[in-house]
Amino acid sequence: MERFLANIQQKPYFQHDNFILYHADCLDILATLPENSVDMVFADPPYLLSNGGFTVHAGRRVSVNKGEWDKSNG
Length: 74
What we know:
This protein has helices spanning 2-5, 26-30, and strands at residues 14-15, 20-21, 54-57, 60-63. By secondary structure, the chain is α+β, with helices and mostly antiparallel strands. It folds into two domains: 1-32, no CATH class; 45-73, no CATH class. Strand 1 (14-15) and strand 2 (20-21) form a beta hairpin.
């Protein structure tokens, strides 16, 4: 694993005996790694931000439509 990590310029956010957590754009980190060297990428974006399309900010109604990726399937 050390040979893969040598190319990553970003400092780990958290490190344990058997994993390393980076708080970064995964595409930047993955671009430095060889193919087939990653077991898992855990992504947890803040889903359902759109809240029906509108919210109130500073007394004004504003659109918060984040697109199709933020729609509920339920």
